[in-house]
């Protein structure tokens, strides 16, 4: 079942943690489905559902241009644009 993501409160905790890390580090990175990924407060496998959440939240009015994404097959590049607390 696919959940439409339009608000921060609807994101899964791992996705919130990943997006917070993009904001804290002020740089993006590339994620791939099936990839083992470790950052502070998250260690686990990246799923296609997580990539979908990140991609969907990009178009949310809450995103306000903080990041954008580029997808290529099972990989998703998150590109930092501006900090949430600038």
Condensed summary:
The protein has 86 residues and is an alpha+beta fold. It contains two helices and five strands.
Explain this structure to me?
There is one protein chain. This protein is of the alpha+beta class and 86 residues long. The chain has one domain: Orthogonal Bundle (Arc Repressor Mutant, subunit A), CATH 1.10.10. The chain has two helices and five strands, in the order αβββαββ. The chain has a three-stranded antiparallel sheet with strand order 1-5-4, with helices on one face.
Primary descriptors:
alpha+beta; Arc Repressor Mutant, subunit A; two-stranded antiparallel ribbon; 2 helices
Order of helices and strands: HEEEHEE
Report the top-level CATH class: Mainly Alpha
Low-confidence stretches are none
Fraction of residues in helices?
25-40%
| Main structural class | alpha+beta
User: Radius of gyration, rounded?
Assistant: 12 Å
Biggest sheet descriptor? 3 strands, antiparallel
**Number of beta-strand segments:** 5
What is the general shape? globular
Number of helices: 2
CATH T-level fold name: Arc Repressor Mutant, subunit A
**Percentage beta strand:** 25-35%
Strand order of the largest sheet: 1-5-4
Secondary-structure topology with pairs:
Elements: H1 13-25, E1 29-32, E2 36-39, E3 42-45, H2 48-58, E4 67-72, E5 75-80
Antiparallel strand pairs: 1-5, 2-3, 4-5
